[in-house]
Amino acid sequence: MKIVRPSTLVATLRETVSPGSVAALPPGRRSTRVLFVLALAGAVAGWLDLYQHYDVSGAGATIAAIARAAPILLCRYRPLAAWWLALAAAIATALPTHPVSDSEPWPWAVTSVWSLVVVLSVIALRAPRRVSVALWLILIAAGTALVLSRGPVQLDALLPVTILSALAPLTAEAIGGRSAAQRRLVVVEEISQAEHARRTLLEERTRIARELHDVVAHHMSVITVQADSAPYRIADLPPAAVDEFASIAAEARRSLTEMRRLLHVLRRDTDADTEHSPQPGLAELPVLIETAHRAGLDAHLSVADTVPAPDRVPVGVQLSAYRLVQESLSNVVRHARGATVRVHVTGDAAALRITVVNSAPEAAEPAGASGTPGAAKALGRPVEPHLQTSAAAAAGTGHGLIGMRERVAMLAGELHTEALPDGGFRVAAMLPLPPADTTPAPTTPGAA
Fold first, then answer.
1. pTM as predicted
2. Among 28-32, 34-38, 265-269, 320-324, which is the least confidently predicted range?
3. In a domain, 218, yes or no
4. Which of 57, 319, 321, 407 has the least CB density, counted as fewest CB within 10 Å?
5. Alpha-carbon distance 317 to 352, whole Å?
6. Which structural domain, as residue segments, surrounds residue 46?
7. For residue 106, what is the DSSP state?
8. Residue 389: which of 325, 341, 326, 322 has the closest Cα?
């Protein structure tokens, strides 16, 4: 059995008598209009009820009707003050009135109960349950005292108002709790979506870092070999230069060791079969298109004559270009079944440009065709929902567009994605190239 502490009782009593202890309703035209309609209906019905069923004069019925309707309007701003005003108006109405027949309720007229129930329901939406229970007990006590003032207690006179004044606040509290739960659910979903986007971004950055490790490690290996072999390739080197080359080689080897440790952390959750695979470049694009053909995708590749030679394009740029095409193809397989894909590679000495355009998908595609997950897997990438033939897809929420943006941003390039009027989709990327006097890098290094 739960024991109610005296401090809890004192706090509850303080809340029931303090006008500002119950918060007002949130500002809104809808709640104001609803309360205005309820107050107007209570005033009109209250006047008719008192005038016809309780033998009250027209002036008296008007005053009592207004006094009982006013708390309904006041509860929009001060619910607890409105409750005490409604209770006082109901008691003041009951004391001088006498029903014209035994079928009319007393001490609480129907319209008095209307005002009390509306205000108590508003309080149930804004106050703890203990406050509603305390006010309900006060209402029952006031009704009992009025009944005793005119004779023995008649339970049938108090039973309707007792049940109605209990059910209405409970119903209002349940509706308010459901609305609050829905609002909390919306907030939780927004937080979950933000966390999912953040986790996806981190996963893509980790994957890009794993791939770029192979590129950087290759360059570090070249530096080590060149520094170690410099005394043998260059004649008559002074001792200071020999020592400097030896120091460079030692630092490069230490850097490679640290990078291998970093790679072990980054690849801890990846497939061991792909840990040491060479990173692809522009030369592997025809193979990628051929793989797409075998997977059932109608893909076409065109490479302009102005595209610089592979030895003029840094490995990081080649890898990003390859991944952009791979991401696009794998997602066309998933979201544009039966579409035709055209990959255009253009460029000059300043930039490399990749454009992937797919047509509108077919209305239906039989099982096992190009739209199957197995076809996307054949392209070497997991299916990732980023290319869709709708305007909403341009915003991009899948891993594919996130990975594309990260790769392009890493190279200080530009990425544009858009849904086409015919139902297709277009991905265009511009990847800057270093100046012509920069030392060229090999095309497809392996892992360190």
1. 0.50
2. 265-269
3. yes
4. 57
5. 8
6. 9-153
7. -
8. 341
Tell whether 170 is covered by a domain: no
Angle (CA) 426 431 434, round 5°: 165
On whether both 139 and 29 belong to a single domain, the answer is: yes
Indicate the pLDDT class of residue 373, thresholds 50, 70 and 90: very low
State how beta strands 298-303 and 414-419 pair: unpaired
Task: Look at the chain and report how many structural domains it folds into.
Answer: 3
In this structure, the answer to whether residues 287 and 424 fall within a common structural domain is yes
Nearest to 173 by CA among 143, 141, 130, 140: 130
Q: Pull the structure tokens for residue 441.
A: 């890098």
Instruction: Say if 1 falls within a structural domain.
Output: no
Which tens digit of pLDDT belongs to each residue from 132-190?
Answer: 888 888 888 888 888 888 776 566 667 777 888 888 888 877 887 777 788 888 888 88
For residue 328, the domain's CATH number is 3.30.565.10
Q: Which long-range contacts (CB under 8 A, 24 or more apart) does 131-136 make?
A: 131/12, 131/15, 131/16, 131/21, 131/22, 132/169, 132/173, 134/12, 134/13, 134/15, 134/16, 135/16, 135/83, 136/165, 136/166, 136/169
CB of 329 closer than 8 Å to CB of 292: yes
AA identity, residue 286: P
